[in-house]
Design brief:
The protein is an alpha+beta fold. 52% of the residues lie in helices and 15% in strands. It has three domains: 11-174, no CATH class; 210-298, Helix Hairpins (Orthogonal Bundle); 304-450, Histidine kinase-like ATPase, C-terminal domain (Heat Shock Protein 90, 2-Layer Sandwich). It contains ten helices and 13 strands.
């Protein structure tokens, strides 16, 4: 990251802020709902207390009724409400609504113009009215609205203060939990940073949560592909150095010899022979360079186009190509399946042509006997190349697939060619099988490319 680039917030900080904001939002909504419910219960409690007090006062208040001649209502000198620590607000009224008895805090005039049992509200009071039919008296007991609002405010203030006090602690807890749970993310970051061209081992994902384990598996797949690409690159360089060293040295030596002999004896035809040998060495160099390019293409696993391929048509085309060479004209036999019916598989026709061309070239190069090319349909599609030479000892068969191994310079020099065939077979999910002697008897080496399933046209 450059020095001028803005610093990005850490995942722990972002997660902490997001979780804290979500918690505060939920808590605010929850606090509002709790405040509404608590206020509802407070009002219900006030109403219950008001009703209970009214029924108790209904039996004691008639003793304070003044004589009928008095013009003003009698005043009751009562202690404050023991529950709410507030003065008692009571009025005792007759059938006409006149106030007969009141407490000191109650007004001289009636709270309501009409008398009816139950609760009623004015702008300043919550009133409960009850009627005593025996004494034909109405009793009204009231709470102030401000008293009730103050109780609700105190409750809401307590809830908000509790939230404000807990919020910093909650932020620290969320940050600690986020840091602890995201510790594995830092670990996988360290593992990725430790990987380089010489260290592409898979990441350790056994102890990670599911999501991080899946990320680790994806990174491991990428590391595997990168390792494969690097191996192909290194293998190509090693193969090029190995395969090109000998023909280049031979060309250089032949040309130096031709020049020296031409300078010493201009009439001799030796320089011409040396020049021909140098040309042959250059042809060998060209052939091996082509093999290296084929090997690079096969091992790199480039994006080949897989489509239905007719093995019969492919083999026939390759046979026609090799019959143009003098060495194959009378030695290569193409044995087509009965009726020349197509044998379809799913594959890359260019890659399969390279593989079959290498098999035929190896068979024609390393034996002087007849070579047969055939396609089998049953039990599974197969390309078969068989020579009728002396064959290969069983102990040497594994060496054929190894690069640069020359167990027998006359026959077992397949090296790169068979490596190319093996890589292409692997890309197609095919089995490369070597038999010497062949299963049907006789002599020679039989190489088979067995494909798992056929593909309809």
């Amino acid at each position: 990251m450059s020095a001028d680039a803005p610093l990005q917030p850490s995942l722990v900080s972002s997660l902490t802020r997001a979780l804290l904001a979500a918690v505060v939002l939920v808590w605010a909504v929850g606090t509002g709902m709790v405040a509404w419910y608590v206020n509802y219960k407070i009002q219900r409690n006030f109403d219950f207390e008001l009703s209970e007090s009214a029924h108790r006062q209904l039996f004691a208040s008639p003793m304070y009724i003044p004589d009928p001649g008095e013009a003003t209502p009698a005043v009751m000198h009562e202690a404050p409400d023991t529950v709410h620590d507030a003065p008692l607000l009571l009025q005792l009224r007759d059938l006409q609504g006149r106030v007969l008895v009141r407490t000191e805090a109650a007004p001289e005039t009636g709270w309501t113009s009409e008398l009816a049992e139950g609760f009623s509200d004015t702008s300043n009071y919550r009133i409960f009215t009850i009627y005593d039919p025996a004494k034909q008296l109405w009793l009204q007991l009231a709470d102030t609205q401000e008293e009730r609002r103050e109780a609700s405010r105190n409750t809401l203030t307590g809830l908000v203060l509790l939230l404000l006090l807990i919020l910093p602690v909650l932020a620290l807890i969320i940050r600690w939990v986020a840091r602890r749970k995201l510790r594995s993310l830092g670990d996988i970051q360290e593992q990725i940073q430790a990987r380089n061209g010489s260290h592409l081992d898979p990441l350790r994902t056994a102890d990670y949560p599911l999501e991080l384990a899946q990320v680790g598996l994806g990174v491991n797949l990428l590391l595997g592909r990168l390792q494969e690409a690097l191996n192909v690159e290194r293998s190509l360089a090693a193969n090029a150095a190995h395969e090109l060293r000998t023909p280049l040295a031979s060309v250089r030596l032949r040309l130096h010899t031709a020049i020296d002999q031409a300078e010493s004896n201009a009439a001799s035809n030796v320089p011409l022979e040396e020049a021909k040998a140098a040309l042959q060495a250059l042809e060998t160099l060209s052939h091996r360079t082509e093999r290296l390019l084929q090997l690079s293409r096969a091992e790199a696993g480039d994006s080949a186009s897989f489509a239905p391929v007719d093995l019969v048509q492919l083999a026939g085309t390759l046979a026609q190509e090799f019959w143009q060479q003098p060495r194959a004209l009378k030695r290569l036999d193409w044995i087509a399946p009965e009726g020349h019916e197509p044998v379809w598989i799913q594959g890359d026709i260019d890659g399969l042509a390279i593989a079959l061309r290498n098999l035929l070239d190896n068979a024609l190069t390393h034996t002087s006997a007849a070579v047969e090319l055939s396609v089998e349909r049953w039990p599974a599609p197969a390309l078969v190349v068989r020579d009728h030479g002396p064959g290969v000892p069983a102990a040497q068969l594994p060496l054929i697939l190894q690069r640069h191994v020359r167990a027998d310079s006359r026959r077992v020099g397949y090296g790169l060619g068979m490596s190319i065939v093996s890589s292409i077979a692997l890309k197609h999910g095919a089995q490369l099988e070597l038999r010497s002697p062949p299963a049907d008897g006789g002599t020679g080496l039989e190489v088979r490319l067995n494909f798992s399933t056929s593909t309809p046209r």
